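Before drawing any conclusions, I needed to go through one protein's amino acid sequence and its C-alpha coordinates, quoted below without any editing.
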Amino acid sequence: MHAGISASALFTLNTRAGAMKNPEQVRSLVLAFLMFGSVMVGVFYFDIDSVGLDQPPAISAEEPGDFVIGEVLSIKVTIVDEALDELVLDVTLDGDRVANVYLDDNGSFVVDISHLDVGLHALKVIARDKNLLETRWFTEFTISYPAEDETRIDLDHGEEMTVNHGDNIRITGNLTHSTITSCIFIWTDAQLEESSLGMPMTEEGAFYLDFTNM
Protein backbone atom coordinates (compact mmCIF):
# COMPACT_ATOMS: atom_id res chain seq x y z
CA MET A 1 0.00 0.00 0.00
CA HIS A 2 1.52 3.25 -1.05
CA ALA A 3 1.19 6.32 1.05
CA GLY A 4 0.54 9.50 -0.94
CA ILE A 5 -0.47 13.12 -0.59
CA SER A 6 -3.28 14.43 -2.64
CA ALA A 7 -3.18 17.70 -4.59
CA SER A 8 -5.61 19.29 -2.18
CA ALA A 9 -3.37 18.41 0.73
CA LEU A 10 -0.32 19.93 -1.00
CA PHE A 11 -2.25 23.11 -1.67
CA THR A 12 -3.27 23.27 1.96
CA LEU A 13 0.33 22.83 3.14
CA ASN A 14 1.66 25.43 0.71
CA THR A 15 -1.01 27.89 1.73
CA ARG A 16 -0.16 27.44 5.39
CA ALA A 17 3.54 27.84 4.68
CA GLY A 18 2.81 31.04 2.77
CA ALA A 19 0.67 32.28 5.63
CA MET A 20 3.61 31.71 7.95
CA LYS A 21 5.96 33.75 5.72
CA ASN A 22 3.66 36.70 4.90
CA PRO A 23 3.54 38.13 8.47
CA GLU A 24 7.35 38.27 8.54
CA GLN A 25 7.45 40.03 5.21
CA VAL A 26 4.74 42.45 6.25
CA ARG A 27 6.53 43.18 9.53
CA SER A 28 9.80 43.83 7.68
CA LEU A 29 8.10 46.15 5.22
CA VAL A 30 6.36 48.04 8.02
CA LEU A 31 9.65 48.52 9.87
CA ALA A 32 11.34 49.69 6.69
CA PHE A 33 8.60 52.23 6.01
CA LEU A 34 8.73 53.45 9.61
CA MET A 35 12.48 53.97 9.42
CA PHE A 36 12.19 55.77 6.09
CA GLY A 37 9.38 57.93 7.43
CA SER A 38 11.42 58.86 10.51
CA VAL A 39 14.35 59.93 8.35
CA MET A 40 12.11 62.04 6.10
CA VAL A 41 10.42 63.69 9.08
CA GLY A 42 13.84 64.52 10.54
CA VAL A 43 14.99 66.05 7.27
CA PHE A 44 11.74 68.00 7.02
CA TYR A 45 12.13 69.50 10.49
CA PHE A 46 15.82 70.21 9.86
CA ASP A 47 14.86 72.20 6.79
CA ILE A 48 12.27 74.13 8.78
CA ASP A 49 14.82 74.94 11.49
CA SER A 50 17.36 76.04 8.89
CA VAL A 51 14.86 78.37 7.26
CA GLY A 52 13.79 79.67 10.66
CA LEU A 53 17.35 80.66 11.55
CA ASP A 54 17.82 82.57 8.31
CA GLN A 55 16.11 85.84 9.24
CA PRO A 56 16.62 89.31 7.73
CA PRO A 57 18.65 91.87 9.71
CA ALA A 58 16.87 93.82 12.45
CA ILE A 59 17.46 97.60 12.62
CA SER A 60 16.79 99.85 15.59
CA ALA A 61 17.84 103.48 15.98
CA GLU A 62 17.24 106.74 17.75
CA GLU A 63 14.50 108.92 16.29
CA PRO A 64 15.19 112.51 17.38
CA GLY A 65 11.94 113.97 16.01
CA ASP A 66 11.84 117.77 16.35
CA PHE A 67 14.62 119.52 18.24
CA VAL A 68 16.41 122.84 18.56
CA ILE A 69 19.63 123.27 16.61
CA GLY A 70 22.61 122.08 18.64
CA GLU A 71 20.60 119.78 20.94
CA VAL A 72 21.19 116.56 18.94
CA LEU A 73 24.54 116.07 17.21
CA SER A 74 24.35 112.42 16.09
CA ILE A 75 22.04 109.43 15.59
CA LYS A 76 23.03 105.94 16.76
CA VAL A 77 21.90 102.94 14.68
CA THR A 78 22.11 99.30 15.82
CA ILE A 79 21.75 96.22 13.59
CA VAL A 80 21.20 92.63 14.78
CA ASP A 81 22.11 89.75 12.46
CA GLU A 82 23.72 86.30 12.69
CA ALA A 83 26.58 87.42 10.39
CA LEU A 84 27.33 91.12 10.96
CA ASP A 85 30.64 90.91 9.09
CA GLU A 86 28.83 89.94 5.89
CA LEU A 87 26.22 92.70 5.90
CA VAL A 88 26.06 95.24 3.08
CA LEU A 89 24.95 98.67 4.33
CA ASP A 90 23.53 101.60 2.40
CA VAL A 91 23.11 104.74 4.53
CA THR A 92 21.87 108.05 3.14
CA LEU A 93 21.30 111.41 4.82
CA ASP A 94 19.02 113.76 2.88
CA GLY A 95 19.62 111.59 -0.18
CA ASP A 96 23.42 111.77 0.04
CA ARG A 97 25.31 108.54 0.78
CA VAL A 98 27.09 108.52 4.14
CA ALA A 99 30.67 107.33 3.65
CA ASN A 100 32.80 105.17 5.94
CA VAL A 101 30.01 103.40 7.82
CA TYR A 102 31.47 100.60 9.97
CA LEU A 103 29.74 98.46 12.59
CA ASP A 104 31.35 98.11 16.01
CA ASP A 105 31.37 94.88 18.03
CA ASN A 106 27.79 95.53 19.12
CA GLY A 107 26.54 96.06 15.57
CA SER A 108 26.22 99.83 16.00
CA PHE A 109 27.37 102.90 14.10
CA VAL A 110 26.84 106.65 14.54
CA VAL A 111 25.71 109.18 11.92
CA ASP A 112 26.96 112.74 12.46
CA ILE A 113 24.24 115.38 12.00
CA SER A 114 26.00 118.29 13.74
CA HIS A 115 26.56 120.06 10.41
CA LEU A 116 22.89 120.17 9.42
CA ASP A 117 21.06 123.48 9.25
CA VAL A 118 17.49 124.16 10.33
CA GLY A 119 14.76 122.42 8.35
CA LEU A 120 13.40 118.94 7.58
CA HIS A 121 15.92 116.11 7.20
CA ALA A 122 15.75 112.36 6.49
CA LEU A 123 17.98 109.40 7.39
CA LYS A 124 17.63 106.07 5.58
CA VAL A 125 19.39 102.77 6.35
CA ILE A 126 19.30 99.59 4.24
CA ALA A 127 20.92 96.38 5.56
CA ARG A 128 21.30 93.34 3.29
CA ASP A 129 22.68 89.97 4.45
CA LYS A 130 24.57 87.23 2.56
CA ASN A 131 21.29 85.60 1.49
CA LEU A 132 20.05 88.93 0.07
CA LEU A 133 17.47 89.29 2.83
CA GLU A 134 16.95 93.03 3.26
CA THR A 135 15.64 95.37 5.95
CA ARG A 136 14.96 99.10 5.54
CA TRP A 137 14.73 101.77 8.25
CA PHE A 138 13.75 105.40 7.75
CA THR A 139 13.21 108.44 9.93
CA GLU A 140 12.54 112.14 9.43
CA PHE A 141 13.46 114.88 11.88
CA THR A 142 13.16 118.65 12.01
CA ILE A 143 15.79 121.08 13.28
CA SER A 144 14.57 124.51 14.34
CA TYR A 145 15.82 127.63 16.03
CA PRO A 146 14.87 128.21 19.67
CA ALA A 147 11.94 130.42 20.54
CA GLU A 148 12.70 133.95 19.41
CA ASP A 149 13.44 136.56 22.06
CA GLU A 150 13.46 140.29 21.53
CA THR A 151 16.24 141.56 19.30
CA ARG A 152 17.91 144.77 20.45
CA ILE A 153 20.67 146.93 18.97
CA ASP A 154 22.54 149.18 21.40
CA LEU A 155 24.91 151.87 20.06
CA ASP A 156 27.71 152.90 22.38
CA HIS A 157 27.42 156.56 21.33
CA GLY A 158 23.63 156.69 21.30
CA GLU A 159 21.36 157.07 18.33
CA GLU A 160 22.84 160.41 17.26
CA MET A 161 26.38 161.74 16.96
CA THR A 162 27.94 164.89 15.55
CA VAL A 163 31.07 164.79 13.39
CA ASN A 164 33.05 167.41 11.56
CA HIS A 165 33.50 167.40 7.83
CA GLY A 166 36.42 165.21 6.80
CA ASP A 167 36.63 163.34 10.13
CA ASN A 168 37.10 159.60 10.49
CA ILE A 169 34.65 157.90 12.84
CA ARG A 170 33.94 154.46 14.24
CA ILE A 171 30.43 153.35 15.16
CA THR A 172 30.36 150.62 17.80
CA GLY A 173 27.57 148.73 19.47
CA ASN A 174 26.12 145.39 20.43
CA LEU A 175 23.37 143.15 19.08
CA THR A 176 21.39 141.31 21.75
CA HIS A 177 19.45 138.14 20.97
CA SER A 178 18.97 134.65 22.45
CA THR A 179 20.67 133.06 19.43
CA ILE A 180 23.09 135.41 17.71
CA THR A 181 23.86 132.88 14.96
CA SER A 182 20.24 132.97 13.80
CA CYS A 183 20.37 136.72 13.16
CA ILE A 184 20.97 138.33 9.78
CA PHE A 185 22.56 141.71 10.52
CA ILE A 186 22.86 144.21 7.66
CA TRP A 187 23.40 147.95 7.31
CA THR A 188 23.04 150.61 4.62
CA ASP A 189 23.47 154.35 4.16
CA ALA A 190 20.64 154.39 1.62
CA GLN A 191 17.34 152.55 1.28
CA LEU A 192 17.46 148.85 2.26
CA GLU A 193 15.57 147.97 -0.91
CA GLU A 194 18.35 149.58 -2.96
CA SER A 195 21.49 148.26 -1.29
CA SER A 196 22.77 146.72 1.93
CA LEU A 197 25.91 145.14 3.36
CA GLY A 198 26.44 142.49 5.99
CA MET A 199 27.44 143.76 9.41
CA PRO A 200 30.50 141.94 10.82
CA MET A 201 30.13 141.03 14.49
CA THR A 202 31.54 138.72 17.13
CA GLU A 203 29.84 135.65 18.61
CA GLU A 204 28.74 137.87 21.49
CA GLY A 205 27.08 140.34 19.11
CA ALA A 206 29.64 143.16 19.32
CA PHE A 207 30.12 145.10 16.09
CA TYR A 208 31.75 148.22 14.68
CA LEU A 209 31.87 150.21 11.44
CA ASP A 210 34.61 152.59 10.33
CA PHE A 211 33.93 155.60 8.12
CA THR A 212 36.65 157.82 6.70
CA ASN A 213 36.62 161.36 5.38
CA MET A 214 33.06 162.11 6.38
Q: What stands out?
A: Confidence is low (pLDDT under 50) at residues 1-20.
